[in-house]
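Input:
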Amino acid sequence: MKSMKVGLLGLGVVGGGTWNVLRRNAQEITRRAGRQIEVVCVAVRDVAKARARIGEDVCITDDPYEIVNDPNIDIVVELIGGITTAKALVMLAIENGKHVVTANKALLATHGTEIFEAASAKGVMVAFEGAVAGGIPIIKAIREGLTANRIEWVAGIINGTTNYILTEMRSRGLSFEQALAQAQHLGYAEADPTADVQGIDAAQKLTLLASMAFGIPVQLSRAYVEGITELNAVDIAQAEQLGYRIKLLGITRRRAEGIELRVHPTLVPANSILANVEDAMNAVLVSGDAVGQTLYYGKGAGEEPTASAVVADLVDVTRLHTADPGHRVPHLAFQPESVVDIPVLPIDEVRCAYYLRLSVNDQPGVLAEIAKELSNAGISIGSMVQQPPDQGEASLTFLTHQALEKNINQAMLAIEALPFMRSKITRLRVEEF
Amino acid sequence: MKSMKVGLLGLGVVGGGTWNVLRRNAQEITRRAGRQIEVVCVAVRDVAKARARIGEDVCITDDPYEIVNDPNIDIVVELIGGITTAKALVMLAIENGKHVVTANKALLATHGTEIFEAASAKGVMVAFEGAVAGGIPIIKAIREGLTANRIEWVAGIINGTTNYILTEMRSRGLSFEQALAQAQHLGYAEADPTADVQGIDAAQKLTLLASMAFGIPVQLSRAYVEGITELNAVDIAQAEQLGYRIKLLGITRRRAEGIELRVHPTLVPANSILANVEDAMNAVLVSGDAVGQTLYYGKGAGEEPTASAVVADLVDVTRLHTADPGHRVPHLAFQPESVVDIPVLPIDEVRCAYYLRLSVNDQPGVLAEIAKELSNAGISIGSMVQQPPDQGEASLTFLTHQALEKNINQAMLAIEALPFMRSKITRLRVEEF
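Output:
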């Protein structure tokens, strides 16, 4: 049978991994796919360097448009990253009737709706398993494995860098800065770690997961995003004492009023399965009304784990490219005409439990006044712990029952105005799942 | 678009769950599949009872052949269980050009090769996600999500009944008989628990996983199967003291000499992810050369979790039924012509670490003689623990390094012949993953 001809844009970490895996496992992959998947051309910045790496028998170009416009190429694999050039290349590939495989979450979370519409109109596939949680087949699980379910919520550790930093902060007592430096030293964090530590990378992935779970358009701009840069060792230790660990979670949940879409540090019970996903590992927990909770765990980044997802997409496209486009798996899990614009709730309307840590003057009546303000805002206290006072300062930590975020904010404002308060309240969200 | 017409054989636990899920989530499922999936006829033993349950607007028959021969039906869902009648119905459905969805692991592990061949020849699909690990989409993960990988091994907790029993034995100190009685009382174990507690159910599932992981024929008869009926509280406690938990694992591994295919109680490190899969939950750990280790976790049985898998299969078949049969996902992950009959190794040729517990007379020189026999058989000791002697009897527990099972057997024979031995050696296998 005729081989599938692939053009590879980029030979960096994931591009190089994809090249290696396709070469090394060529026989195994052909036994599965039923035909050979062949990289016929690679576009890179430095042709000489690429030539030294991958040899003489493949075309190498420094012009990615040469690949996107090559009539012999069936599938374009976009692994150059970034948004502007990547978008132009992907849109042109679609226009030229080529299928696209990409691991570019920033591109899809920003322009996914437009890209998927163009692909549907042209009858080509845009596959993106590598865009979320590396080699874990979570997109396949949600789009295909759980189709029977009304999905209720998805909660995931979908950024390995921050999970590594949080693991080190908790287990070895490092500060955020120390753990970040160590992550950079080990190659888990980039020189500019902003997208990871501020939660932006996780929000891009979560946005895609939410669209597929609930059949809503891709809308990164409506996600609430809070990173881990403000977390300190006191709260990590205090959480542990209360039986919790702090994880940077992406959470999306269907509520009667709309969809919650939020990334933030979250207290989860220390004996829960998500709490025990440590180091740079990723895991996504999905709750469906029929199946209950299922979890998907593995490496969320890296050369070959991400390449594993890219190549799985190549096999999928190879299998499905002769199928009637109307019967392929829809890009966002639901048929395009039945994607519904359910509103994404602002963070004020989110409901969860809260961790509140207060520094107060050690004087009588403090607890009563705080409890009164919480009660005024309709917030019910689950538990409270007081640290022994130190130099006239007492530390109080509250775990509340479920409450609306705007009510918590109202209570915090009122409490912070009280005369015995020493500093701003530290507020973290809590999920029990 | 024309709906897909489904005939349902059986309205028991999984059949009833499938009916419920298809009804309750009809709208959500149609939004995904792009067309309605409609149960048009149900075959049951007791028509009146079924009529009372599912109402008047669906055909109900007590003759399953009526469904299998009905030219209006596109997909037959076989949920009656057992092997003989189920096989006849499935083969006839295939002959009649219908797609088949089944959760019948006993049927497929026994007659899978024949059934899949018939289906391939006829150009129809036999989908069986519900046959392994309930609602966890593990078949999809192995057949599609991990296609880039040379899979190295699969290890899973794929029987919820025994996992529940082992959890209760460890956490509450129950005997096997007590834990089994409790499992039966709670509906986790059947009145005749043989297939579960003797490891047969797990072996059926493992056999299917092995075929898909390595591209080998289905061959249940070559699996090594050891259940949990002989496990006692002493070994569970002793394992815990050594930092291990005992799980009934299905393990299949590719080695240079052939394929390991085995179900047995296994010591796994207490802090490993498999050790912490408790109660009736299932989890499958897959190691691939590109992706590394990925884990899939959820409920492995029950009405709606298994129905979740059956309905996902219905959606898959609905999506793929217009596709060229040569491009569908192969039944056993690899194209039929490239399934290779790699030999399955007999248990004698399996290699792992071992736990050996010995009761001996408390006298000098015992340890030296045991160590000599282990050394004669080429077995290296990792660690040894001795319990304080009690009434002249001492208990010694060894953890060996990796060894061939036949060498362990040879050493055990020699040691059991020594005069100071009080009883047979308790031998368990150990895996670190």
